[in-house]
Every structure is written in C-alpha cells, then in structure tokens.
Write the structure tokens for this entry.
Amino acid sequence: MEILLVIIPLAVLVLVVVASVVLVGRRRSIESDVVDLELPVEVSEDPLATAVEPRELQGEQTGPEDLAEPEVQVTETAGPVLGTTVEIVGPPLTEEEEAANIAAAEAAEAEWEADHAALEELVRPTFRERLARARGAVSGYVGSILARSTIDETTWDELTEALLLADVGAGPTSELLDAVRATVRERGITTPEELVEAVKDEMKSRLAGPVTLQRAEVAPTVWLFVGVNGVGKTTTIGKVGRRLADEGSTVVMAAGDTFRAAAAEQLETWADRCGAHLVRGEEGGDPSAIIYDAIASASARGADVVLADTAGRLHTKSNLMDELAKVRRVADKGDGTVTEVLLVLDATTGQNGLQQARQFTEATEVTGVVLTKLDGSAKGGIVVAIRSELGIPVKLVGLGEGAADLVEFDAAEFVDALFDRD
C-alpha cells in the first residue's frame, strides 16, 4: 500500500511534465509559422540585382508587318560600371542553353581582355602587316614577271594566274587585264616594272569608292548587319560599337539573331564593354519586332546609332532572304533611318562569298561589305570580285581578332600590300 502511495504521485507528475512539453512545442511551432508569414521580403539595394520577369513576344501573334508601335514590353535593369542597360523578354533558358551562353560570354570576355592586356589605347594595324598569306599567293608571280626583260604572252599568262590564285575571279580578271592591255598600248609601256604598276593602278581605280559609314540627318541612324552564320556578324557589331563609343556616340544594339544559341549573350558582352544599350527578345522570337523596338528605344533615349544583328539561318521553314527583306521593311517603318545594310563576309570563303553577296544584295539592298578574316586568307582578291561584279564597296575589313583590327578599307594600301614582295 505504501508503494502505491509513492508510485501514483510520481506517475501523475510525469504526465504533467510531458503534457507541458507538448504544449510548449506546439506553441513555438505556431509562433514560427506566424513569423514566417509576417516577415517582409528582403529587397536588395544593389541596382544590379533588379529582377527581370520574362514574357512572350507578341510580334509573332500580331504580325511585324503591321507594327504601328513597339511591340515588346520591356523591363530594364541597371547595368554595370559603364552604364549598360538591357531589355530582356521571353521565357527562361534551359540548362543547356544557359551553359552555351555562359561559354560564349566567357569567350568574348577573354577576347576583350586579350585586346586590352597591354594597350591603353587601340592601335590600327596596317595592311602590309596583316596580309602575309594573300601577298604570298601573288608575290611569287610578281617576282617572276619582274625578272623578265620584256613583256610577252608568258608575262600576261603569269599575271592571269596570279590574280586567279588570289581569287579575283575569271570575269573580273579578264576585264582588269583587258583594261591594262589598253593602257600598255596607249602609254607605250615596255618594261615589266611599268606593267606591274599599271596593274596596281587599274586595281586601285576599280576598288576606289566611299568607305565612310553614312549617318542619318536626324538620329537615330540604323545600320543592319546581314550574313550567314559563322562569318563574324556579332563580333563585327561589337567592334563597330566600340569604335562609335570611342568617338563619343551613344549606341543601341538590337539582338535580332534570335535563332542562334548564345548570339544575344555575345552581343550583351560587347554592349557591356562599350556602354551600349541592348534590346533582345526570346530565343526563336521575331527578329523584326525586336529590331523595331530597338529603334523606338533609341529614339526615346536620344541615341545616335542602332546596330542591328540579324539571323544567318532559321530554325523554321521560312526562307532566310524573305525574313531579312521583312526585317528591312519593318526597320524602315520606325523612327530611325536605315542608312547602311552591311554584308559581313568571311574572306576565307572566296568565290562562295561572292554568291552570298549576290543573294543578300537582292534581299536587303546591301550598301557595303565588311570582309572579316582577311589576315588569314590567301583569297584577298575577292575584294576586287565583289566590287567589280556587284558594284558594292568594301567598307570595313578585319585584319585580326582584336577590337582595333576592324579598319576602314583603304584601296591603295590594300593593293600595295598585295603586291609587296618584301
């Protein structure tokens, strides 16, 4: 009996303690839930942390041909040190797309750092420094011609072979040498030295033409860049943007190549570096709507120049040339003025580049050519073919990978470098 009197109070005490612990635990859980509900959302004061809510483009639904006002509703983010701002629309990227974009951006970043590692300001290269391969294709023939004492049919044959090897093309070569033959007769030229100089003079006259990129009387000026994938359109736009920024111009870049993975990210890196404003859309979206909106954005901002990237191929059944023609028509409807349509060609493609030039000219009324990778090609004569057969001036040439290596084409310097034997 005495044992029961001891055990019963102890059991009651234990039950009371356990019940108290359970009640306290439930109370804390409820308080925690209430706190979680009442906590304010933390907002970063860092302007670079502004979020961008993606949404779908409306251009495909309404039809870019009928645009009366900008179609893309944009959300701005404050940019980095140089003041870049980016307008982004569209769905979030997949993991694979994001990885590809990061890789492309890092490659562009590495290129920029390599350009500026040892130079405080960009230095323009010379044609003679960068045309070693093209010069090598011609110099052997020139040396053989100059070693002769007279001008005979073998001399003319060697000239023909040299120009064809440099990829001037059969038609332009024949026309050029026919003109030189007439000059030889008129001037009474008898020595190989004089003959070579006559060839150079004729080539320079055929390549002569305006190379300055035209500006509109009223801003914004619009420059469209066209060309197949892989020729360097996006990099060219970045380098042109850098030049304009150095001149004090304000630039808007339009990421109109929505069909190539990472194209917009590459352009964003360049925009960052030259303090440009970037307008982009969802991958696979309507390029016309994006470029139209970029022009409207430039007009609202008082920007000087819009640099518009375009697709080099499509992932749909649409014809590329039809798409580019539509881009040109829509661009002309905006507040800006299209003063240049620049065809970007890879110099290493030679006569294939000439075929591209014909097709793009028909679709977009090309005003000038940007010839990239000229320093790595033995086919520099394509410059003559383009000018002779299409009447389109080569306005810019790429003589290397750096931002300073995109230079205005100089006909006299180019020809002298091509025939230089040293």
In short: The mean pLDDT is 76. The first helix runs from residue 2 to 38. DSSP finds 15 helices and ten strands in the chain. Residues 198 and 367 are 29 Å apart (CA to CA).
